[in-house]
Fold:
Amino acid sequence: EGILEEMRRRRSHESTIDRAIRKARTAPKRNKVRWRFQSESQVATAEAAKAARSAE
Structure:
């Protein structure tokens, strides 16, 4: 048996509380903000939009 099979087996017998705890534990890993490449034109556009919002 592999690790994934073991996880599936455990998951099939877990209670609703266990499921909520498991999902709460994995959510930060899934929703983590990752570094993304931004070109100079994207940065300039974002700064212009920010300046326009602050000018209003």
